Fold:
Amino acid sequence: MTYVYDLLLNFNDENRFVEFYEWKEEDILEHIRKIMLFRISPKQMEEITHYQIQVESDFLKKIQGTSISYRNKKDMEYAALFSDLNKVVALEFDREGKIMSKSSLLLDEEEDIMEECTDLEEIQLTYKKLEKYSGDSFLTRNESMKKRYLIKEVEDLYKTKNIDKLTYLYEEMYGKDDLSFEEKYKRLKTEIEKEYSEKYNNLYDIVRLSYINKN
Structure:
C-alpha cells in the first residue's frame, strides 16, 4: 500500500472537477493526514473524470477507513487518490461504490505525487460506467455562472418582449438573418444551454456593461 501524507483537498460534488485555481476562500478545505494512492491508465483517468462510476465492493474494502483527515477521521470512509502520471484526482465514494465527491490538488502537491507515482505499478481499477456527466461538468465555475446569467437574461428579454435588445445580442453572436423574434430567442437559449463555450463570454460582458452604463 502506498500512502500520501499531509495535503489539502477541496471536495465538490461528483459532477464537477474544480481545478485548484478555481478554489474560493469560502470553500471548506479538507486537511488530509493520509490517503492511499493508486496509479491508473490514462484511459481510466478519462473515464472516472467524465462518467459516474461504481467500483466493486472489493476495492471499497481495500480503502475503507484508510483516509484520515486532521479534522475528523470519520469524514472520509471511502476515499483515495488516483493518478495517470498526467494529473491526480481525489475521489470519495459512497457505500455503494459510486463517486460522491472529487477534488483536484494544489499544483506543487500534484507534481510531487505524480513523481512518486512513477514507481508504482499500474492497477486495473474495476468499475461499472454509469451515466456520462453533463457538459456543465467541464465548465469552469466562472463559466457556469456566466451561463446561468445569460440564460436568465435571454428568458427575461423574451418574457418582456424586449425585441431590440434580444435582437442585438443575437446579431452579436450570429449576425443578421430573417428569423423571427421567437426563433432568435429559441436559438440563443438552446445554444447557450447546450453548447456554452468561451465565445459566449464576450456576450456576457456586453450584457453586464449594458447594466453598468445605466447606473
User: Anything to note?
Assistant: The mean pLDDT is 89. Helices lie at 42-50, 57-63, 107-117, 141-159, 163-174, 181-195, 201-212.
